[in-house]
Give the backbone structure.
Amino acid sequence: MPDKDYYKTLNIERNASPDEIKKAYRKLAKKYHPDLNQDKKEEAAEKFKEISEAYEVLADPQKKKIFDTYGYEGVSQQFGKNGFSWNNFSHMDDISDILSGMFSGGGGGGGSSIFDMFFGGSRGNQQRRVNRGSDLNITIDLTLKEMYSGISKTLKYKRFEKCYECNGSGAKSSRDIETCPECNGAGQRQYKKQSIFGTMINVGVCQRCNGTGKIIKKKCPKCHGDGRVKSEHKLTIDIPPGVMNNSFMVKEGNGNAPKHKGINGDLRIIFRALLDNNFIREGDDLHIERSINYPDAVLGTNIPIDTIDGHKVKLKIPSGTESGKIFVLKGKGMSRLHSSQFGNLYVRIKVIIPKRINKEAKGLLIKLRDSLEKKQ
């Protein structure tokens, strides 16, 4: 897995404010816009994607917190198997003026645009991104043992799904749909504006039809014109061993359906660790405390240790062990995510000093003390 530092990618400090993060991204977005780098267009497009991935993570408080805690490995689960793609980018509004304004030649023609390179088509195809359902977040609780071994869980949650009464159109029948007169069915409108780059063509969603290109005369009685209804959805997921507290996975297309057809948003499943009565987790390592009595600390002993995998191991306590001594059981900690290795189990020994003892025990301790003093 590649080691990425999103702060270095955007040339910002780790304590940068949200406004500073946005400002840095916009500056680099202008610098590496492919249409302004005709001699190195592919290289610029790759760099543009790289800084957009960094912004996607750092502009989102939840993703930023996970990245700050666990690094790239912590946030990589939200992307697909091939890593970040433009379907993961959810901050188009932050640079919409840059993307829609900087076409080759400054007038919207004469060469491929940023939308051709990134979204697989012309500016008109940006409608696909506009008509996308919203993402959903679900938090599920996991025990430490479930995080250790991995588990399959079936989730039940409410989401918007396509209305099958009208097939997502929102209309009572196909005869009740007409082409929007404002945008002539394009779903978008263009207007000119002046900027430091000259005359720019800005593309915006048609307000009359909300980007659908259609006007509904009679609404579907089931969804009331939305083209979607809310219902319960079931999804079975396989949680891999070694997931961290507050880490998450993304299931693409399992979020809300959009209004009037389109593609579903994504579902983000956040894992929350339940408190464990025996172990304390720190990364891939586990910590426990075990008590022994004073004679065992002096003479030495063997104590049984319950491990996270449900087995018992014997830990040898050598004679003269002091309270606070830590023993390491290698490989007896947590599973490491996407790895066959394991963390360690750290056992802290606490020596119990009795507050009250009988006369016989007191006499034995006095003899022990006298014996030790003679040897000194």
About this structure: The chain has three domains: 1-121, 126-272, 280-375.
